[in-house]
Amino acid sequence: MTEPEGVLLVIGSGLRTYREYLVESIHRCARRAGLGLVLLNNLKPTWQRGYFDEIVHVDVFDAGEMLAAAREVAARHRVVGLMCWDEPVVLAAGELAAELGVPGLSVPGVRGCRDKNRTRTVLTAEGLLQPGYALTTGLDEARAAAARIGYPVVLKPRAMGASIGVVFAGDESELDAAFAVAMGAATVDQSRYGGAAIVEGFVRGPEISIDAAVHKGEYLPMFVARKHTGDPPYFEEVGHVVDAGDPLLHDPQLLDVLARAHRALGVEDGITHTEVRLTDRGPLIIEVNGRLGGDLIPFLGKTATGIDPGEVLFAVATGHRPAITPTRHAVAGIRFGYPDHDCLVHEITVPDNAPGLVLAAPMIDRGTTLRLPPGGYLARHSFVVCAADDPVTCGRRLDAAAASVRVDADPVDPPEPGTAFEMPAGLLDVDEHEGVSA
């Protein structure tokens, strides 16, 4: 191509199965606009070479190294936009966008999304429905907070993602163990918000997520995902379903809550992934994430609605109002495979042909040990994605496809008490932690 008019800086690609569809769309948009693409990535380039004009191999999870590399790129190119969809890097990337003077969430916006305690504080001050909550660093603090808030409660790290370290405590007898789980995860968190756990009132009701664009502060919802979680006391996500005709996309109360929350947090330009409980008192925001959803939710959205999240992200990152009108009216869902117990996996076989099957893949390498919470998190061995014309048929197809996954594994003993939790070494990609296997 000829010398580009400017470049779009992408921080972290994610892995091929989970993000290539997004990168492909961004590449197509950049070529159409005469822009170059520069990637800063923690992974050595393989498939990424086909989409980026320049790739800088750097530890993007080290904010200092990432910022130094980005500033060096900005000294050589006119950076016209910045993109990042990797949760641990979102904060530094959002602050960098402000430094470079390109569209972004804004510094208050990205900090409000990344810090769960700040989110609660801002939304409570806005008058939005929120649970009682407290930021704690010690067990005595957590005990006092839970007693003040009232049981049951949920404990969670201040800034981790993917439901890591999120645990339910039904009464005082369960609080100490729950706090140990939450703080165990919070201690692993190396971000500026690590080392603290939030205690908050448990909220009952179905949970959804909404991926939306924000353009100059205008909230533009794209699609709603209905979430399915595993067994308590943990909250690991086992699947999602996106219906292009979901009535929640037109629910005035929900849309008002979402728009008010984003204004209060100061989100200006970007894409957000907001998790909401539908309570008997109205929608309650659990958290707002300053990035696209993980777990292939944007892929489900594209499959169900025809809205291309890559094109939307490109538009808002370059200062344009995106088109979010559906061109398709279908249902798409994903189901993750989890073992019944801790195990050493020898082989995984996924279906290659089933009714409505769109995609299926293993999520780990052979020889990976999977551990369920609290000894480990995201013990997923595979996923299947199916599509249909209606939610009931989609659910049946997901059931059938998931049932056809075959796992050859041997049980392993639980970890010793006090052992730090494990993430599967071969895990390819997960919600909020794309690139974790780097």
UniProtKB/TrEMBL annotation:
Domain ATP-grasp: from-to ranges: 120-318
Domain of life (superkingdom): Bacteria
Gene3D superfamilies: 3.40.50.20, ATP-grasp fold, B domain (3.30.470.20)
Transmembrane parts of this sequence: none
UniProt GO molecular function: ATP binding; ligase activity; metal ion binding
Residue ranges that the Swiss-Prot or TrEMBL entry lists as coiled coil: none
Alphabetical UniProt keywords: ATP-binding, Ligase, Nucleotide-binding
Annotated InterPro entries: ATP-dep_AA_Ligase, ATP-grasp
Name assigned to this protein: ATP-grasp domain-containing protein
Organism: Amycolatopsis tolypomycina
